[in-house]
Design brief:
heterodimer; A: mainly alpha; 85% helix; B: alpha/beta; five-stranded parallel beta sheet; four-stranded antiparallel beta sheet; 9 strands; 30% helix
Chain lengths: 222, 200
């Protein structure tokens, strides 16, 4: 196995064994999706109307829960120094960590979303668009989150600052993702929203490893 | 294999405070250098500088491999076997998994016999959270061996080890130098082998 896959496999193993990543994110997502209909009431039209926005915001906040540990654990126990000295460039290290975070959190949230859409009385086609939008958009959440996680690496209680840094950057993802679902409900094509979401996600996944690696490098030298 | 590592007029500052300046030394293949000094003198900072984590405030570090020489920090980092203050171990992984991970990361074969060498053969399937501080240090030594790097930078290599563990470290260091490797170790204790020393 190459160093990239070795790191990816280890991070997935750690996520599965520590139980704090996917399980916590999924529970949070499910709780948000359960509480909103209780708060809004039994107006099915209203619920299906706001489903896209609520589920997208819920997914982003759920993914945030484990983002602060993306580099932090390795930084604190000295693993990050050893990874930095390996043949794997730090940019590829960041990409492996983004991929592991997405597979353990974003993908799991995406798979759960059709079930939670039932609570909002969302019709099958908008549910499919919600699923697709999360599938396309959640990699951007992990990628942009990696920048925030690397910036707050050496800060005490950096996890509290992390949402303040990355949530504004994730506004386009929520707008395009929820917008695609809303477009379908209004009888329009979701392609525009999904296309913009894909473009944003692609750009985030391609560019964020460079930013995150630069920030990790600075933190290792501090 | 590295022929030599040369530090030329290095300076290190942490914030406003100058830790050292005009520091020069040369270590050749098969040599060990003990870096000594009081707490806060800059021993760890010097090792981090040599590993490429920290940039020197002045001066340069030149690594000679065969006839080629380079002062590129990343290139130097690819030659470094690092044993820092922290052991880089995950409590959720077993001893064997930990070693296999680092072998894969450094693109080297995971030689299980290394665990026997450091006295952890019987703990191979034990999660790292159950290891004592000394056993964790031994596993970090196993990781160092698996990385097969020729420039060892060791920060307090005897920390947390019992007498047998300290003898093991001395043996491993002697073997590494005997094979033409270079060791630079920050330590308060004698390395247990014939070495140069540098006082900060």
């Amino acid at each position: 196995m190459s160093p990239f896959w070795t790191l990816l496999a280890r991070d997935l193993k750690l996520a599965a064994r520590s139980g704090g990543g996917a399980a916590l994110a999924l529970s949070f997502f499910a709780l948000v999706a359960t509480l909103v209909p209780l708060g809004v009431g039994a107006d099915l039209k209203l619920l299906s109307r706001i489903a896209g926005g609520i589920l997208w915001v819920g997914a982003v906040l759920a993914a945030l829960l484990s983002l602060d540990r993306l580099f932090q654990g390795d930084f604190e126990d000295g693993s990050l120094e050893l990874i930095a000295l390996s043949p794997l460039p730090l940019e590829m290290t960041a990409l492996a960590k983004i991929a592991a975070h997405w597979l353990s959190t974003g993908a799991a949230l995406t798979l759960l979303s059709p079930l939670l859409a039932l609570l909002f009385n969302l019709a099958p086609y908008p549910t499919l668009v919600l699923f697709l939008s999360l599938l396309i958009g959640t990699p951007a959440v992990s990628a942009v989150g990696a920048i925030g996680a690397s910036l707050t690496l050496s800060l005490k209680r950096g996890g509290l600052i992390l949402p303040l840094i990355i949530l504004p950057l994730l506004a386009p993802v929520v707008i395009f993702g929820a917008g695609a679902v809303a477009a379908v409900m209004d009888g329009f094509s979701p392609n525009g929203g999904l296309g913009l979401l894909a473009a944003f996600s692609l750009a985030a996944v391609l560019l964020s490893p460079f930013a995150a690696a630069a920030s990790v490098r600075l933190n290792l030298g501090s | 294999m590295i022929s030599s590592l040369t530090a030329e007029k290095l300076a290190c500052a942490r914030g406003e405070r100058k830790l050292f300046e005009q520091l020069s030394f040369r270590v050749t293949a098969g040599q060990a250098l003990a870096v000594e000094g009081a707490n806060g003198a800059g021993k760890t900072s010097l090792l981090r500088m040599l590993a490429g984590f920290l940039s020197p405030a002045a001066g340069r570090i030149v690594l000679k491999i065969g006839d080629a020489q380079s002062d590129d920090a990343e290139e130097r980092g690819r030659q470094v076997g690092w044993l820092g203050h922290h052991d880089g171990l995950k409590p959720q992984l077993t001893v064997r998994e930990q070693l296999t991970f680092y072998a894969g990361l450094y693109a080297k074969p995971a030689d299980a016999a290394v665990l026997d060498q450091v006295g952890l053969g019987r703990q191979a399937d034990l999660p790292c959270r159950y290891l004592s501080a000394g056993q964790k240090r031994r596993l970090a030594l196993a990781r160092l061996l698996v990385s097969q790097r020729s420039l060892w930078l060791l920060d307090e290599p005897f920390a947390a080890l019992d007498t047998a563990g300290q003898q093991l470290v001395a043996q491993l260091m002697a073997r590494h130098c005997g094979a033409g490797g270079i060791i630079i170790a920050a330590t308060h204790e004698p390395l247990g082998l014939s070495n140069e020393s540098l006082k900060l």
